[in-house]
């Protein structure tokens, strides 16, 4: 009886964590499938490549937003700021644990932000790398 | 029967006076614009800039703006069709010439549905009210943009745009 109770308790506590992580994993597997389809050589996402993407300066997008860091700030664990003065939650999952759980929202912001910074939509590889980087921080 | 006129007059006078004071306090010197209360509108219109009060523009401006979110003052702010419909309905129903008339009347003076700008900062009354703000002040790092109301109006999120 006691063990059943403990098991129930454990499940009850563990479940929200599982539920919160699942959408992120789903997103990553979707991006992985698409990346693999685009290039058979694909062998997994890299937080390092994600970091490079995050810190790089681009010229293809809007001149006032050359980099992710323009709005998100120089360090992933600190808050960012939009040109109109709104605070942006840090991109690092360790500081913003509720981030990246709504796939539609993630996709919406990738679409908008990649267009603004790179002048094009990001590839599934870039999205997966970036998300892996943000989750690792 | 003798009617006590003096006390009655006094009461009327006091209530009229407090009515005026209360209205002013509530209006923040005539500059109160009820903030967005709808959670979807607040989230979608308030992630890049302050979710501007619908009473600050006429319904025609909101409709036009919502019709071209892909080119939203130089940015892509597009949302899915269902969300866009919901936001449009909220903004037009509470616009300065519809549901929010009481609040937007002064700001929209001289503005018609035909000549209404999309930018709140192009409304004649807005321009007049901000003419004392110098170019240097607009360029300050913590201001950055004319859309950053809270940089000067600390209570803007709650709808109060007091004089600075």
Description of the structure:
Chain A has 137 residues and is mainly alpha-helical. Chain A has a single domain, classed as Cytochrome c-like domain (Cytochrome Bc1 Complex, Chain D, domain 2, Orthogonal Bundle), CATH 1.10.760. In chain A, 58% of the residues lie in helices and 3% in strands. In chain A, strand 1 and strand 2 form a beta hairpin. In chain A, helix 1 packs antiparallel against helix 5 and helix 2 packs across helix 5. Chain A is globular. The relative contact order of chain A is 0.19. The model of chain A has no long low-confidence stretch (mean pLDDT 89). With 164 residues, chain B is an all-alpha fold. Chain B has two domains: 29 residues; 128 residues, no CATH class. Chain B has seven helices and no strands. The model of chain B has no long low-confidence stretch (mean pLDDT 88).
Task: Briefly characterize the structure.
The complex is a heterodimer of chains A (137) and B (164). Chain A is mainly α.
Features:
A: 137 residues; mainly alpha; Cytochrome Bc1 Complex, Chain D, domain 2; two-stranded antiparallel ribbon; globular; B: 164 residues; 2 domains; 7 helices
Amount of beta strand of chain A: under 5%
Low-confidence stretches of chain B: none
Low-confidence stretches of chain A: none
Shape descriptor of chain A reads globular
- Helix % of chain A is 55-70%
Q: Strand order, main sheet of chain A: write it out.
A: 1-2
Number of domains of chain B: 2
Name the chain pair with the biggest interface and residue counts per chain: A-B, 12 and 20 residues
Counted by DSSP, the helix tally of chain A is 5
The top-level CATH class of chain A is Mainly Alpha
Please compute the radius of gyration of chain A using only Cα atoms: 17 Å
- The best one-word shape of chain B is globular
**C-alpha Rg of chain B (nearest Å):** 20 Å
CATH topology of chain A: Cytochrome Bc1 Complex, Chain D, domain 2
Quaternary assembly: heterodimer
């Amino acid at each position: 009886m006691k063990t059943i109770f403990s098991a129930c308790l454990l499940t009850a506590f563990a479940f929200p964590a599982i539920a919160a992580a699942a959408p992120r994993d789903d997103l990553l597997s979707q991006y992985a499938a698409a990346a693999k389809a685009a290039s058979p050589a694909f062998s997994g996402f890299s937080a390092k490549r994600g970091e490079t993407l995050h810190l790089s300066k681009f010229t293809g997008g809007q001149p006032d937003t050359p980099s992710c860091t323009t709005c998100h700030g120089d360090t992933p664990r600190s808050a960012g700021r939009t040109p109109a003065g709104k605070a942006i939650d840090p991109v690092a999952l360790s500081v913003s644990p509720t981030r990246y759980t709504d796939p539609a929202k993630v996709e919406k912001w990738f679409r908008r932000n990649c267009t603004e910074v790179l002048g094009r939509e990001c590839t599934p590889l870039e999205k997966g790398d970036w998300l892996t980087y943000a989750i690792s921080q | 029967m003798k009617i006590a006129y003096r006390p009655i007059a006094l009461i009327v006078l006091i209530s009229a006076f407090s009515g005026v004071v209360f209205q002013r306090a509530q209006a923040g010197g005539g500059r109160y614009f009820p903030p967005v209360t709808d959670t979807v509108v607040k989230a979608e219109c308030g992630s890049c800039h302050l979710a501007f009060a619908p009473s600050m523009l006429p319904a025609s401006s909101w409709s036009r703006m919502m019709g071209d979110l892909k080119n939203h003052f130089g940015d892509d702010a597009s949302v899915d069709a269902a969300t866009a419909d919901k936001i449009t309905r909220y903004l037009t129903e509470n616009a300065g010439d519809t549901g929010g008339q009481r609040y937007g009347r002064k700001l929209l003076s001289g503005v018609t549905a035909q000549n209404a700008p999309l930018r709140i900062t192009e409304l004649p009354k807005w321009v007049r009210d901000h003419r004392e703000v110098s170019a240097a002040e607009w360029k300050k790092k913590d201001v950055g943009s004319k859309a950053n109301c809270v940089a000067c109006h600390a209570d803007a999120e709650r709808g109060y745009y007091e004089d600075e």
